[in-house]
Amino acid sequence: MKKTGIFIYGMLGGMCIAIGGAAFLSVDSKPLGALFFTVGLFMVCTFGFNLFTGKICYVFENGGAYALDCAIIWFGNLLGAWLTGAALRATRISPLAEKAAAMCQVKFDDGLWSVFILSVFCNILIFVAVDGYRNNPHELGKYLSLFFGVTVFIICGFEHCVANMFYISMAGMWRGRAVIFILVNTAGNAIGGVLIPLVRRSTAKKSAVL
Predict the structure, then answer these.
(1) Which CATH number among 1.20.1250.20, 3.40.1280.10, 1.20.1080.10, 3.30.70.920 corresponds to the domain 3-203?
(2) Which of 65, 138, 157, 167 is the most buried (most CB within 10 A)?
């Protein structure tokens, strides 16, 4: 796929996650919101759109061009999440912006080390969700992987950079602190996403030697 296509699919991926984020904001129950948020990753996987947090998990299994693609996807996700947030702020559900703002303020008040750790754990679960969807031989297993991976990271309060791009956009809070937060969030997601693949790869090499 050409770079333009990668970016557009990234934008669509960001919009899908933003829709999931809007669903989360629309209910008062966190477990119920976590369940409805799953629709975002479900749409991404079903339609083959690009999502940074999923693609980055496989960066060491591909060449340097793939890493560049991940960067392009990140910017596409950002644009898609921002456009969705900006569009929803212009509708009758704009009061959700207040809820998003309160949530973002809690995130911004947190320490960066805390944000980083929560981001690492988030993408460990995203890898479980995405890799399970890709490789589980059973149809039910594929969708259970998505369901548990996403709902658990939300219930635990882990940090997903694309979801946060939407919440910040919905809240209209793109300032210096927000940029720093997203960069730390992204770094944590990237490291969390490659942890299991790297361990699995290292273990496979040792087994081959033995």
Answers:
(1) 1.20.1080.10
(2) 167
